[in-house]
Structure formats: structure tokens, C-alpha cells
From TrEMBL:
Single GO molecular function: NADP binding
HAMAP family reported for this sequence: DapB
Organism whose genome encodes this protein: Pontibaca methylaminivorans
Function: Catalyzes the conversion of 4-hydroxy-tetrahydrodipicolinate (HTPA) to tetrahydrodipicolinate.
Residue span, Dihydrodipicolinate reductase C-terminal domain: 131-267
Gene Ontology cellular component annotations, sorted alphabetically: cytosol
The protein's name: 4-hydroxy-tetrahydrodipicolinate reductase
Assembly and interaction partners: Homotetramer.
Upper classification of the organism: Bacteria, Pseudomonadati, Pseudomonadota, Alphaproteobacteria, Rhodobacterales
Protein's gene: dapB
Length: 269
């Protein structure tokens, strides 16, 4: 048991953080390491197991990244872009595997992550599930097969507490479609429609966003042509799929050379 890799969780008090605690603890493949919470959180200095209303985990949560992530072989991080950049710097300094499920990065923040990935294993994905990554592969193939007579729309739905839009998964699917067509997504992305927008521009990849209730995650990629539509879909009903994927990524990254990887690497796709 003591030989198992130690996995720390950043953002331990969040929805995904709590799910990761359960998945890692019950996996039999890793030991739960440090649990990091945001500064001033009421879990700081407490055992999160008791804070969640269950049995003690034997670990005290901390709001100090240097302390919480000390001794970890890997850190799984579903937090915020600024926090993920801070943890990436620590990973580059200490050499632990950094699994990033955070979304909403700016271009400059992505450049900062790439710099840190030169000195540590970084696995970053807009979605950690097997199904979504298979869907992205299908989207790329279909986009390559169909010409611009087929309009592409990415429609996504999430719970009402999600703060970024479009979702990281939607953008990942848009990137897959753009790659299939051999164009940069930035040149064909249509992410804002309001008022008198005029006709749809040929070749654009559109995004539509729904926020409501407790929707875990739903993504459709529609190829709309004359007289027919092809829709590729993924529906998530349990956040555990993302936690299991993130744990798989963390274990896969152990012993790999420094660099930036994604779930297609982890899954051999």
C-alpha cells in the first residue's frame, strides 16, 4: 500500500475536488495526498472527510500550495486559470505530474503553461472522459469528409454555476472540427450572435451555450447540410467519469518525459 503513488488534489472543496477525493481513495491504484483549498476556506486545517459529513481521511486540508502539494507524485487540478498557472510553476520546480482539468485560459496563460511544461509532465484537457475524446476524433474525421456545404454548430449545456463559456469541451470539439477542415479555429469561430447579425458566413464553426440547473455536461456537434443533418453527441450524467479520467491521466504521466500532453495521448488515440 505504501508503494502506491501519492496523488494530491487542488481545489479539494469544489464539486470535482470532492469527487476526486472519493475516486482516488477508493481506486486501489493510488494514495490520497495533500488536499489544497483556496485561501481562507473553512476546510483549511480540517479533515475534509469530516467536513463532508463522513469518516476522517487522516489528512488535513491546507490553503498553502507549497505545503499541500509537498511530497506528491502527481497533482490533479480543477481550479481556476490563475491558480493552475501557480501550480504549474510548482510542478516545474518540484517535478510532479500536473493534470489540469481547468478551462477558460487566455492565450497568454496558455503560453505560460507551455513554458512550465518544458520542465514537468503536464496533461491538460478540456474534458477528461473517454467518450468525449472519442467524440472529438469522430468530429475531426467527419469535418474532413464533409465540405463547407455543411455548417458546423457546437451546442453545449452545463449547470448554472459554470463560469466560462463556451465550455472547454465545446472549444476542444470546435478545434477538432477546424483541424478536420484544415483551418485555425480562431479564423472561423462564431461565438457571439445577438441582434441583426446577417447571414451565416460560409465555413464558420458556431457555438451555442446553455446554462441551467444541475446539468453535468451535454455536447452536440451538428453538421447541417441541405436536406440532412448529422449530429454527434455526448451526455455526461456523473462527474465521476471526469475524476476517473483525471486519475488515469495522473498515473499515465508518472515517469514520462517533461512536456505537454492531452487525453488523446493518455488513451492512445
Amino acid at each position: 500500500m505504501t508503494d502506491l503513488p501519492v496523488i494530491a488534489v487542488a481545489g479539494a472543496a469544489g464539486r470535482m475536488g470532492q469527487m476526486l477525493i472519493h475516486v482516488i481513495r477508493d481506486s486501489g491504484q493510488a494514495r490520497l495526498g495533500g488536499l489544497l483549498v483556496r485561501p481562507g476556506h473553512d476546510w483549511a486545517g480540517r479533515d475534509p472527510g469530516e467536513a463532508m459529513g463522513g469518516s476522517a481521511l487522516g489528512i488535513v486540508a491546507s490553503d498553502d500550495p507549497a505545503r499541500a502539494l509537498a511530497g506528491a507524485d502527481a497533482v490533479i487540478d480543477f481550479t481556476s486559470p490563475d491558480s493552475s498557472l501557480e501550480f504549474a510553476a510548482l510542478a516545474a520546480e518540484r517535478g510532479f505530474v500536473h493534470v489540469i482539468g481547468t478551462t477558460g485560459f487566455s492565450e497568454s496563460q496558455l503560453a505560460g503553461l507551455q513554458d512550465h511544461a518544458q520542465r514537468a509532465v503536464m496533461i491538460r484537457a478540456g474534458n477528461m472522459s473517454l467518450g468525449v475524446n472519442l467524440l472529438a476524433g469522430l468530429v475531426q474525421r467527419v469535418a474532413a469528409a464533409l465540405d463547407e456545404d455543411f455548417d458546423i454548430e457546437v451546442i453545449e449545456a452545463h449547470h448554472n454555476r459554470k463560469v466560462d463559456a463556451p465550455s472547454g469541451t465545446a472549444l476542444m470539439l470546435g478545434e477538432a472540427a477546424a483541424k478536420g477542415r484544415g483551418v485555425p479555429l480562431a479564423e472561423v469561430s462564431d461565438r457571439a450572435r445577438d441582434g441583426h447579425t446577417g447571414a451565416r458566413r460560409r465555413g464558420d464553426i458556431g457555438f451555442a451555450v446553455v446554462r441551467g440547473g444541475d446539468i453535468v455536461g451535454e455536447h452536440d456537434v451538428m453538421f447541417a447540410g441541405k436536406g440532412e443533418r448529422l449530429v454527434l453527441s455526448h451526455v455526461a450524467t456523473d462527474r465521476a467519469i471526469f475524476a476517473r479520467g483525471a486519475l488515469r491521466a495522473a498515473l499515465w504521466g508518472l515517469g514520462r518525459p517533461p512536456g505537454e500532453y492531452d487525453m488523446t495521448d493518455v488513451l492512445g488515440l
